[in-house]
Write a structure and sequence with these properties.
Number of domains: 3
Helix content: 10-25%
Strand order of the largest sheet: 3-4-5-11-7-6
Radius of gyration: 34 Å
Number of strands: 26
Largest sheet: 6 strands, antiparallel, barrel
Amino acid sequence: MNKKVWRSIFAGLLTAATILAPFAPAQAASARIKDIVNIEGVRENQLVGYGLVVGLNGTGDSLNSSPFTKQSLQAMLERLGVNTRGESVRTANVAAVMVTANLPPFGTQGSKIDVSVAAMGDAGSLQGGTLLVTPLLGADGEVYAIAQGPVTINGFKAQGDAATVISGVPTTGRISSGAIIEREIGFELGAQRTLRLALRNPDLTTARRVALSINDFIGVPTATPEDPSTVRVTLPKGFNGNIVDLLTDVEQLVVETDAPAKVVIDENSGIIVMGRDVRVSTVAVAQSGLTVTIAENPTVVQPLPFSNGTTQVEPSTNLNVNQTNSDLTVVPESVTLQSLVDGLNALGITPRDLIAILQAIKATGALQAEIQVM
């Protein structure tokens, strides 16, 4: 075979490689199963309570403006044997607050959790305050924890006669290990024979890959994908351990995650996030900018000397309209996200203009992705 034939074959292979290279599948993202699923029954529970913070240096609620603070203060004093009904109570060292916390999964009785405190009334700051005993209730109305302790805030407020300086939010705070768990939530994970794994980002392909990865590792059909967000795992017969041992073994398995093509737009901040699989067909885009400048330059007209006229202000407006036109620019059919970004960046547009362009491209049917506006 002569050199010309070899050169022709080599050139053909090089051309084919150049054409097919952009069509190579994008590298999928890999993650551990424990990072992409939630286990049924292993969850936090929200707790909430109402309490009083005392010891404030004159930055508490105004009792006349916050009647709930006054009523709570009187009720607390009555429980302590002090009767203040009908008396005029004036103090600025007490603030009514809402206390929130998250009860961790399998939290045991006697263990401590962190709590957050937020003022309800017109208190200026919770600095130096101490939260009094506050029951924390769950959604069922039962008390699951008791909170109390000094409040730590992340800001401050300094005020004078003519100026005020506020840093951060001094009306919210946190108490580290400020609540003691008094009631446990009964759930025996080790006694379960079957559990469901809930995908944090539901997807049919990812659910099937999770099930296949678990079954390949165990060697028997143990996991079954039920829907895009659920994979049911059953403890196999003869397994040396309980469901906790099984979950410990499979949560370290690595799977390739998948997700539908999506464009997320936050119009308030002008942020645009596009997924890896976003594709766009060939479209032509033109953008024009219109700038209108209005300047007011009023002129003061004085009357002549010794006349009966008055000083008048004559309005004067300078109006300037500047319109920049742009020719149609072709955005070629994109194979990768980088190609799409490069094509749109070539227009030299701002993120807010890009939002409108993406929505217009979606309206034409050329954008193969879902647009989610936040």
